[in-house]
Amino acid sequence: MTERTLTGALPPVRHWPALHLKGVEFDPVLAELMREGPLTRIQLADGEGWAWLVTRHDDVRAVTDDPRFSRAAVRGRQVTRPSPHFSPAAGAVGLADPPDHTRLRRAVAPAFTARNVERLRDSARGMLDELVTEMLGDGPPADLTEAVLSPFPAAVVCELTGVPADDRRSMHTWAGLILSSSHGAEVGERAEDEMSACFERLIGDRRDGTGEDVTSLLGAAVGRDELTMDEAVGLAVLVQIGGEAVAHNSGQMFYILLTRPDLYEQLRADPGIRPRAVDELLRYIPHRSSVGLSRIAMEDVEIRGVRIREGDAVYVSYLAANRDPEVFPDPERIDFSRSPNPHLSFGSGPHRCLGGMLARLESELMVDALLDRVPGLRLAVPADRVPFRRGALIRGPEALPVTW
């Protein structure tokens, strides 16, 4: 393939449809693409044309670190994409390149330091204990998603962003609509507009603020003319949505634990391995549907002997990278003793998720609270009757019926 590609021949374009996958099933189309080669060509459900897909762990890291692949250059192009949701507005941090991207992230980075995340530990644990206590008081059966897995991350990210109590329910609703394509693009866009309007009000009220929450940091940056209001609002929306996505990932984690008694009992018997187990579950779960945002090659670039030409659209797959057998021996097996575990579930390069440390903390707290406080926790329905979200950009169970 190398010689044909370098002399002009290209691998065939594979159509990658939007599939409704049940449970933690790995996307069969992505699995085929991984077998076909380290670089393949794909056509997705929306947009126009085709794009390269990069699936090997080291190649994914190389592309995401390489300034020759631009997110900003995607603006105005009708590239093939998973859904209409994957076309952020101009000025969004997701479509910025360094140094502009660096400037934008710098404004909120203090909220995500190890010190600030650790500062949230006690208040987060308190919120979680209240939710678990309420669930136990109501008695079984319960929907674990509704009782704990969804409201807990929503409350924590609102604490981080500085959203007041009166606005938190609306924020949670808007985030759910933005993260789903099942209601249509118009509904998601309207929810994003409403969330943006709320954040514009909050940021505007805090231009003279000195707090460490996200809206206070953004308000101060706008007040110093370091960010425009549109840029600040875009950052706040990104942080809020990313924080809410933890609920979907946690749902997959607990679905695995509740359908794999051997893994569940390992964690109950040996609490010391839980942080490492959370990392392994983060590696294993198929946390998104399809791929994220694309990049554009700004010049000809060769990867593994394949020439990506200037102007070509390129996607990386973190899901595929997390199953690369050259990096993760026996990648289809969940191994709580896996070390090292350089998974890319929080991305790679300049666009790596700022909230990775917070997401780990929340997941560890939920594992501790539910395994220690709810002995005998188990599914209340057969595993194949657990409903998973349709059209969700971030995969996860819609409900997780449990008893104890």
Q: Which residue ranges are poorly predicted, with pLDDT under 50 across at least 5 consecutive positions?
A: 1-7
CATH architecture: Orthogonal Bundle
Shape, per Cα inertia axes: globular
Q: What is the CATH topology assignment?
A: Cytochrome p450
Computed Rg: 21 Å
Strand order of the largest sheet: 1-2-3-9-6-4
Query: How many discrete structural domains?
Result: 1
Name the average pLDDT.
92
Q: Please write the string of helix (H) and strand (E) elements.
A: HEHEEHEHHHEHHHHHHHHEEEEHHEE
**Mind telling me the CATH class?**
Mainly Alpha
Strand content: 5-15%
Terminal residue distance? 55 Å
Structural class: alpha+beta
Within CATH, the superfamily carries the name: Cytochrome P450
Helix count, DSSP H or I runs of 4 or more residues: 16
Largest sheet, if any?
6 strands, mixed
How many β-strands, per DSSP?
A: 11
Helix fraction, binned, reads: 40-55%
